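@channel sequence for tomorrow's demo:
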Amino acid sequence: MSVLDAHPPLEVEDTTRTRLLRLVAATGPTTAPALADRLGLTRAGVRRHLAELLEDGYIAEHEVSRAAEPARRGRPAKHYVVTGRGHSVLPTGYAQIASQAIGYLAQVAGPDGVERFAQDRAAQIEERYGPTLRAAGDTPTARADALASLLAKDGYAASARPVDGTATLQLCQGNCPVQDVAAQFPQLCEAETAAFSRLLGVHVQRLATIAGGGHVCTTNIPLTPTTSRTEGATA
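structure tokens (generated this afternoon):
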């Protein structure tokens, strides 16, 4: 029996541990003090819960370079990210239906069927998100913030963050409702990335995915428009 198997599964309910896990997914790599401030808890209490999540394999320590942190005395603060085990217990509203649909298409229609499904799903994202992004304005920053909010409501624990010293943002998705399916069928991630480009009006680049083994899905967004939005995103 492994160390992970020796511990009971995390109950996904509104407990402090679960709220911490969701917040680490949404904001990681993050620290105990930052989490304590966000949740209004003591740092000692948060560290105790983080130690339990760490021991049970739901989070892991993540090395952050000193250059990326504000200058301070003493040892650098520990940063945490959600592991694959942690992602597996986070809410995944679309996982079951996506698994069924992709599995069926892969059996009866092969790769072409999966590709058509991925493109159709991307088109639905554009149709649903388009009105809100258009209302947000024409700047990539405003649209990225709107996109992150919509993704967060759909269970992706998303946020848009500026990258210091560059004219770019990073769209971070701390949870992936279809990560197991996307790991087998990367067409889903590729089509989604293309949809983000069309919605934002810039050429975005997917730097990492949870399905590919990353702790978060990271998409680089330039702040200078470089592409034309499609009819589906602007109509």
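heads up for whoever presents: The first helix runs from residue 16 to 27.
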